[in-house]
Specification:
about 260 residues, 5-stranded parallel sheet, 7 strands
């Protein structure tokens, strides 16, 4: 038995259409459409010129090496090419608390790994908003668009946020909200424990490491048919599960969305 216990699943709640104003302005939408053409940047992997036409901020040569997760994948956790559906891990409930359904855009390998590391570790903040583009087809395919769905980025601990200067999942969630009409609600989730890195830990250690790391500061403010948790990379699912469990007792459905997946 793992250390993290799962909250019961609930069907989406039907709520009135939100009357909140969209977070984008006409100027922001114009820049989002043509910014890559007017202000070209280099491919973070090889340095070649980037146009604003691609979903991925990668040159054509690097895009050829992408491994998208778009055909066969686990209906629960999104693992690519599972031997069964749901996959063996989901059938055994190895990661308790995992959101109802998780989708990832591509495998965490090759150019995708280099892209994420460039943004997070080398300060390529200019690419952060662009990285929401590969997520848009996923949310549209799942029917997660519109104001009844709220995007909640997995937060950094405040000290780490100050050190890095920005949180990639937050930037992706904000840009995705502009593109899809979903609500952007970063204030619904806080990271209250400065957890050590998950790297080199097994599943049990990962689950313990992030247990109680998140909290919902104002549960009464959470009103959405579904909350879509946004993160950059999913490895074991422990972080998404811990974030989802913070919403225990709140009448909403939890989904997960990541740019990449270690598979």
């Amino acid at each position: 038995m793992n250390d993290v216990s799962r909250s019961p699943r609930r069907p989406p709640v039907s709520l009135p259409v939100s009357t909140e104003k969209p977070i984008s302005t006409p100027l922001e939408r114009l820049f989002d459409a043509v910014g890559g053409v007017l202000f070209p940047v280099g491919c973070p992997v090889c340095g070649r010129f980037l146009s604003g036409e691609s979903a991925w901020p990668l040159c054509p040569e690097c895009r050829e090496r992408l491994e998208p997760i778009s055909r066969r994948f686990c209906r629960r956790c999104g693992a690519p090419f599972p031997p069964t559906d749901p996959c063996p891990d989901c059938l055994e409930d190895r990661v308790f608390g995992l959101p109802e359904r998780v989708r990832s855009a591509a495998r965490y390998s090759g150019p995708v790994r280099d892209l994420i590391l460039a943004v997070k570790m080398k300060g390529r903040e200019d690419l952060a908003d662009w990285m929401a583009r590969p997520l848009e087809p996923l949310v549209r395919a799942e029917g997660w668009t519109g104001s009844d769905f709220a995007l909640v980025p997995v937060p950094l601990y405040p000290k780490r946020l100050r050190e890095r200067g920005f949180n990639l999942p937050d930037r992706m969630a904000r840009a995705l909200a502009r593109r899809t009409g979903m609500r952007y609600r970063p204030e619904w989730l806080e990271r209250v424990v400065d957890t050590p890195p998950q790297k080199h830990r097994n599943l049990e250690e990962r689950l313990r490491n992030v247990r109680d790391a998140f909290r919902v500061p104002k549960p009464g403010k959470v009103r959405a048919g579904a909350v879509v948790l946004v993160d950059d990379v999913m490895t074991s699912g422990a972080t998404l599960a811990a974030a989802a469990l913070a919403f225990s007792g709140i009448d909403t459905t939890l989904y997960g969305l990541t740019l990449a997946r270690v598979a």
